[in-house]
Amino acid sequence: MVTSSDQQTRVWFITGCSSGLGRALAETVLERGETVVLTARNPQRVEDLAATYPERTLAVQLDVTKPEEVREAVKKAIAKFGRIDVLVNNAGCATVGAIEEVSDDEVRRQFETNFFSVLEILRAVLPHMRRQRSGNILNITSMDCFRANYGGGFYCSSKLALEGISGVLAYEVAPLGIKVTMVEPGAFRTDFIKRSIVINDTQIPDYEPLLGNQRQALEEHDRNKPGDPKKAALAMIQAVDSDNPPIRLALGADAVDAIEQALEFIKAGLDAWRDVSVSTDFDEVLADKIQVAI
């Protein structure tokens, strides 16, 4: 485990610090005596934290979809603190609409924010972590990667893309002392619905039986979510503190339930069609496998 003195020297670079899980994580890390690069599209929204912890913060403007701002933010972080020990790719957005309804422009916006911006940040930070031969990367994905959430097809797809590179990245950088964790949150009591979710303008009547109630619930901005952002922050810090952090970290009982149900569903389908699936190998390959089994 990391000692208290080691924790105080760690520098966290967190995207999307102005609210939600990013804000809760930044506050909790600072309360523990560590250092945070506070990034936000509007840095004024994190000025209170910077004023409270002036020696251990750097507030920088960062629209994650702008590569020049990504590079500049990382440059400023290294110039002030000399290193980045923990990178948290938290900033994200979502669009609600059926696959047929959502425009190409909105799909691209979704992937630019949730996937390509993370790729840009990774490529800016990884050279510094490689030189250090140490670092932790937390990529915030979603429990929606494991369920068919009506109207959330492109949000799920962008987060699945992020999970795809995260899993491979974890193996690529492990020999370099860098650890990667996919954080898969459930529903947390933040302002994500109000702040970062767009309800698609085009609404096809045929999809209303599926999507109508969901749209209404989002518009009413239900605040009765089960997840506590402070506890999520503590869980993420615990993962970073660990000598062996998980590659996947589900946050919330709802996330655990969703993942367990998805695994059971996948296993049931695999078992039901196993004979058909394995029958597609060449006959000699099948014969060899049968012989080995005997």
From TrEMBL:
It comes from the Bacteria. Residues 10-174 form the Ketoreductase domain. SUPFAM superfamilies: NAD(P)-binding Rossmann-fold domains (SSF51735). Keywords: Oxidoreductase. GO terms for molecular function: oxidoreductase activity. Pfam families: adh_short. InterPro entries: KR_dom (IPR057326), NAD(P)-bd_dom_sf (IPR036291), Sc_DH/Rdtase_CS (IPR020904), SDR_fam (IPR002347), SDR_oxidoreductase (IPR051911). Belongs to the short-chain dehydrogenases/reductases (SDR) family. This is Short-chain dehydrogenase/reductase. It comes from Fischerella thermalis CCMEE 5318.
